[in-house]
Amino acid sequence: xxxxxxxxPTEAAVAEFAGLASDKQIDAAASALERNGVASFxxxxxxxxxxxxxxxxxxxxxxFNNTSRTLEALGIAEDIERSGLYQPLxxxxxxxDREMQGRxxxxxxxxxxxVVGSVHAVTEEGSLLIASAxxxxxxxxxxxxxxxxxxxxxQKIVPDVGAGxxxxxxxxxxxxxxRAREAYGVPSGVNNVLIINRSIAHGRISALLVRESxxx
Amino acid sequence: MSDEHRESMFDYDARPITPQVVLVGRRVSxxxxxxxxxxxxxxxxxxxxxLDDEDRVRRVLDGDAVDPSRLPICVLPDGRRLAGATVExxxxxxxxxxxxxxxxxxxxxIGAGPAxxxxxxxxxxxxxxxxxxxxxxxxxxxxxxxxIENYLGFPQGISGSELATRATAQARRFGAxxxxxxxxxxxxxxxxxxxxxxxxxxxxxTRSVLxxxxxxxxxLEVDGLDELLGAGVYYxxxxxxxxxxxxxxxxxxxxxxxxxxxxxxxxxxASRVTLLVRGSTLNTSMSxxxxxxxxxxxxxxxxxxxxxxxxEADTRLRAVVLSSRDEPxxxxxxxxxxxxxxxxxxxxxxxxxxxxxLDDAGFILTGSDVTASPGxxxxxxxxxxxxPLETNQPGLFAAGDVRSGSIxxxxxxxxxxxxxxxLVHHRLAELGAEL
Lengths: 216, 435
What we know:
The complex is a heterodimer of chains A (216) and B (435). Chain A is α/β, with parallel strands linked by helices. Chain A has a single domain (2-210), classed as Rossmann fold. Helix content of chain A is 44%, strand content 20%. Chain A has ten helices and ten strands. In chain A, the strands form two sheets. A six-stranded parallel sheet of chain A has the order 1-10-7-4-2-3, sandwiched between helices. Chain A is globular and about 45 Å long. Mean pLDDT of chain A is 91; it is low at 1-5. In chain B, strands 5, 6, 7, 8, 9, 10 and 21 form a seven-stranded mixed sheet that branches. In chain B, strands 12-19-13-14-15 form a five-stranded parallel sheet, covered by helices on one side. In chain B, a hairpin with a 3-residue loop joins strand 16 and strand 17 (317-324). In chain B, helix 5 (114-125) packs parallel to helix 6, helix 5 crosses helix 10 and helix 7 (257-267) runs parallel beside helix 8. The N and C termini of chain B lie far apart (60 Å). At the A-B interface, helix 7, helix 8 and helix 10 of A face helix 1 and helix 6 of B.
């Protein structure tokens, strides 16, 4: 918390967690994810990732895009919300009357056909780690959503789950906290952490690993 | 709990969606209200910037001067600005106004409320070439309903906007076209069918027409009221205004389900809601579940036998003057907003001039009511009588609130819209055009 209040991660955290992984590490993570039931694809650029997401999402699909700097920066959030090709859930949820439609809001957000989002760390052993302040996005990732697509910048690869948890706490959280304070005037929090070690339904989760730094 | 915390808890992962449209203006204006109502009912995220908020206005308009006679200013996603923006201009600027794809349809539906959407779903699912024209937003009056609790299959209720969103997606999935933000201007006989002309000049040929255009709110005849439209006086349930009524005093005029739904919605936001009912009881005009709900709300007062006879205002509404059957004299009710949800005036513009038989109140006659109406069949060309939902023009049907004798309920309108499609099949077979 103290790092966040000072306005960012420490130099040591930046040195350890902000650098782009080597091709070898990225390929190793992709292979490990495949072994763990996650369909994984390695692409060279963010633009390639955007095209891949377009090719995976069926026209007309109901899609929820999680809050993600990666998705926003690549234009994927805009593709989903504005292209008219899909049924985007986020605008629909946002227009709902918070007082009258709380139940519909919860139900719609809980089980979309597709979720597109990112993770905070992926390990070379093939685990995915996602933190969330509200926790609302984690249920659909575990089982609520029909399909999950993660777009993952190549700087998010860490050796193991322990390093992934440290990446969240020491690097992602201070940056997210600063962003939340600036954008919404409220602090963030590592209140919920999801670790996906294995997906039993092979192909339900797709991971697009990008050989570029994307998001944080 | 602060608004901020409420927002962050409910916003599924705390990013407010980027507004597609930014509007700069004075909240107290009828055009501003019309735009907010249009955008919110069509699910377009927008941000309203009040003209007095100079810092935000400067940021939004890059420091450019504002002409106060041309408000509101609408900033579109591509940066274009529309001064004195109208609903049609904003809809067009957002790419919401699409042209019909075909030159000819089997069925053209006028209005995408419950009856029109139901007809759209059934017609398209049965392979008919289907187009629906909607002037404002899918869902019609029911689309502004806070929670319909007696609609079959939704034991916890469903909001009107959610029902409309789902029905629209369903109609489109089956291939029905939904053309928004355009009004029907004229409809003319052509060969065995009709030619429909829209406000932008577009025309389509169609073998059958379903008038499902619903009703407008009845005007409240009170001196000075019309000048306050958007400045504290609103027609309809005003879903776009609910949040800005937080902590305010609100009155709703009407004794029907629409008024009851508005009471339930505003009671969640306003400090006090007064329901003003002309009749002596709610029980004859409102569904019992709504009567019960309204009576259970602590911040709601129901005044029966009461009419609005005057308004007090400066730049906006400040109070209404009431006359009650049970009390002599007049009383004054200070408030910030008045929502009028009374009755319904049938929307038959573009249809009525063509010899369409109407009842005394202007609702469209169909089926045996046409047969029983003197002179209504004088120009009827067929040997058979009009079909149950058919008007006195062959192949032109009516369903939902606009139809004379219809039950003014969402589920009844949906039933009629569905039923109309089977009658359209009958008509197409008669024309030898059945698929």
